[in-house]
Amino acid sequence: MKDTIVLTCLHCLEKLLYWTLQVRSYHL
User: Fold this and answer.
1) What DSSP state is assigned to residue 15?
2) Prediction pTM value
């Protein structure tokens, strides 16, 4: 159960990082 939560968190962070990079490149 705990591992699932960790994986979900990592996935969310991954998406957040992805969008941050997308927005950055868009503004550049």
Assistant:
1) H
2) 0.56
Amino acid letter, residue 4:
T
Q: Report the candidate in 28, 3, 25, 2 with the shortest Cα–Cα distance to residue 17.
A: 25
List Cα–Cα distances, 18 to 2, 13, 27, in angstroms: 24, 8, 14
Residue 8 and residue 15: Cα distance in Å, rounded?
A: 11
d(CA 16, CA 23): 11
- Give residue-wise pLDDT tens across range 8-28: 999 999 999 999 999 998 876
